[in-house]
Amino acid sequence: MLLPPLLAAAQPASEPLTWEESVRQATAVNPDLRAARDSLQAAEMAVHGAGSGFLPQVSGSVARTDGTATSTSNAPATSSALVVNQNLFTGFGDQASVAQARANRAAAEANLRAARAKVSYDLKSAFATLRYATDDQALSADIVYRREQNLRLVELRYESGNENKGSLLLSQATLSQARLGLLQANQALPVAQAQLARVLGRDDPPALSLVGTVPTATPPAQIDYASAVLDTPDQQRALAQVQAAKAGVDIAASAFWPSLNLTGTASRTNSDAMPDYRSSNVLLSLNVPIFSGGKTYYGVRSASAQESVAEAQREGLLRQLRAQLEQAYANYILAVTQLDVAEEFQKAAQVRAEIARNKYSNGLMSFEDWDIIENDLISRQRTLLLSQRDRIIAEAAWEQALGTGVIP
Questions:
Q1: Residue 295, domain CATH
Q2: pTM to 2 decimals?
Q3: Among 54, 58, 108, 220, which residue's beta carbon has the most beta carbons within 10 A?
Q4: What is the domain range of residue 239?
């Protein structure tokens, strides 16, 4: 490629960033990932909290009563008590609460998987876009330089009477168009830098320049869509929501059952007028619900309806995910093939342009035919850059649909 003097809009000195380093930075700093990790930790703590219903509850109290010691009844006294309560049965509500908390944790795990896949897509897309913007800037500058050389050649032939004024004016117009393209490329570069900086969780977009590109893989020849759908984060989240809704039904129905509690109390009272008084007792209590005004009944009906909603949503989601996977795979295969075709066309256009330039310089080709070949070369060069970017983005979209990616 020619090295034009017009690589004019040189950016300030920036930090070279490899693909591997960008993955490391996004994994460590991306705010969406941090939020998903924290949500999973919160759900994990909720599971431990839900299990507290199986453990005894212990409370203690201390009281001091001050008074005038004129009689025994109002003499200053200190009392303390220790109460231990163990729930023996709550109508399976404790088990259902733990099951619901575990389902919510599974949903949080699926959310974290989805967040990783999304950040992977965003990172690949932003990296490929910045790579494209950088290469497009260089290509646009090269096109300007090429158009300048072409204009000089047309001017020489025009001055010698071998070319008409229309060809000269068209050459000048195409140079202006090339300069406009360079301006657009210069403006697109900081936008692409800002997009990548957002994914990386950084506040210094101009300090980003790339070394290398995103590695790509060969598309799989066959896809087991049924298994792939079941392994997606969206499906796993929907399944967890169904399980949480089922546990919600059990929690609501537990109010129909009696509850059984065992309570032990030990107390001590120390008065200035009387010796220490100590007592202890054990109470086994059975509470049988008889009528709650319909609250429990309608609560169960509501929870059952929520379970039905979750199951219906999951059923519809499975079909939607199948369609999304097939579309993403089709786009992936198409992008890979388009890149192969674009590379072939670009090679052919490069050779044709070199031959055409020599022919036109020697008066063996008309300006119109030469201009068509020059325009075709520029078009093929831009198409190749776009195809390289789109191939990476299509693979990233396929990985996101599967719930995979480069983020560990």
A1: 1.20.1600.10
A2: 0.84
A3: 108
A4: 19-64+77-402
Is 202 among the domain residues? yes
Domains held by the chain: number: 1
Tokens of 106: 């599974």
Give the model's pLDDT for residue 34: 93
Q: Which two tokens stand for residue 393?
A: 């983005």
Per-residue b or e along 349-380, where b marks 16 or more CB atoms closer than 10 Å to that residue's CB: beebbeebbeebeeeebebeebbebbebbbeb
Contact 17, 208 (CB under 8 A): yes
Buried b / exposed e along 62-78 (16+ C-beta atoms within 10 A): eeeeeeeeeeeeebebe
- CA 347 to CA 340: how far, in whole Å? 11
In a domain, 72, yes or no: no
Q: Which of 14, 135, 80 is nearest to 382 (CA)?
A: 135
Reported confidence tier of residue 267, pLDDT bands at 50, 70, 90: confident
Q: How far apart are CA 19 and CA 211, in angstroms?
A: 7
95 within some domain: yes
Higher-confidence position of 55 and 355 = 355
Tokens 């869509």 identify what position? Answer: 225
Residue 71 counted as domain residue: no
| pLDDT tens-digit readout, 347-390 | 999 999 999 999 999 999 999 999 999 999 999 999 999 999 99
What's the CA gap between 301 and 172, in Å, rounded?
77
